[in-house]
Design brief:
The protein has helices at about 5-30, 35-40, 45, 50-55, 75-80, 95-100, 155-165, 195-205, and strands at about 60-65, 85-90, 110, 140-145, 165-180, 210-215, 240-245. With about 250 residues, the protein is an alpha/beta fold. The chain has a single domain, classed as Vaccinia Virus protein VP39 (Rossmann fold, 3-Layer(aba) Sandwich).
Length: about 250
């Protein structure tokens, strides 16, 4: 027993150090001079360190970010994974490919060449897509931030099936999106929101397990009745944040 206690303490110390290493890398990425000021201004609202800790990010993971947009999270994730992990982006990658990938400090960003099949049919509020594959397997984690609401149900099913296929057993899928009231009829004010219960059902139907959720991005003053781009709401929307696992 007298030898067991020091071993346990040493083990806990290494565990704490590993967690601190991750935190330090995230904080260093957030403090990088290359980050645009517009990105920095959103840190308080998006709470990236707490969000990535909730998802269980480790610096030796193989991680795919879906629909990276202008690269807000790309600029955080890529440096964290640069030394020990692998980092991919896929779908809607034009701005990341042109402005971030391959620049100093972001040489490890690998843009997956999926079919350029995203489109919004005339008269539709939502994007759709054709069947495709990411071209990678055995990923540890896939992350998507405020994107599922952009797609119709069929497109979400196609994309989420490919996420499932790309993850290894035990792989994690982290989702953040703008909250819509449960079972609320679709209208112009809520079209860029999505029902979190619907997201859970769709992912469970594909075989995912719901691991956990957090209220990190809960906003009590978002009445869930206004379009997320309205000045009174933008930057302060209620967002659900959930973690799923491939069995």
């Amino acid at each position: 027993m007298k030898y067991l206690i020091p071993v346990l303490l040493l083990s806990l110390s290494f565990g704490a150090q590993a967690a601190n290493d991750i935190d330090e890398k995230v904080m260093a990425a957030l403090a990088a001079e290359s980050r645009p000021q517009a990105d920095v201004d959103r840190d308080r609202n998006r709470r990236p360190l707490q969000t990535l800790n909730f998802f269980g990010l480790k610096d030796d993971m193989r991680v795919l970010e879906l629909m990276p947009g202008g690269g807000w999270y790309t600029r955080v994730l890529a440096p964290v994974l640069a030394e020990n992990g692998q980092f991919y982006v896929a779908m809607g990658t034009g701005r990341v490919k042109d402005n971030i990938a391959g620049t100093p400090g972001f040489e490890n960003v690998e843009v997956l060449a999926t079919a350029d099949n995203l489109r919004r049919p005339e008269g539709s509020r939502f994007y759709t897509m054709d069947e495709f594959e990411f071209g990678v397997r055995n990923l540890d984690m896939v992350l998507t931030f405020r994107n599922l609401h952009n797609f119709d149900a069929e497109a979400r099913a196609i994309m989420n099936r490919q996420v499932y296929a790309a993850l290894q057993s035990g792989g994690l899928y982290g989702v953040v999106d703008h909250t819509r009231r449960h079972m609320e009829a679709l209208g112009n004010e809520n079209r860029r929101r999505i029902d979190p219960v619907l997201v859970i059902k769709e992912l469970l139907d594909l075989g995912f397990e719901l691991v956990d959720y957090t209220d990190l991005h809960f906003r009590a003053d978002d009445e869930l009745v206004y379009e997320v781009g309205r000045r009174s709401v933008s930057g302060n929307t209620d967002r659900f944040t959930m973690l799923f696992r491939k069995p």
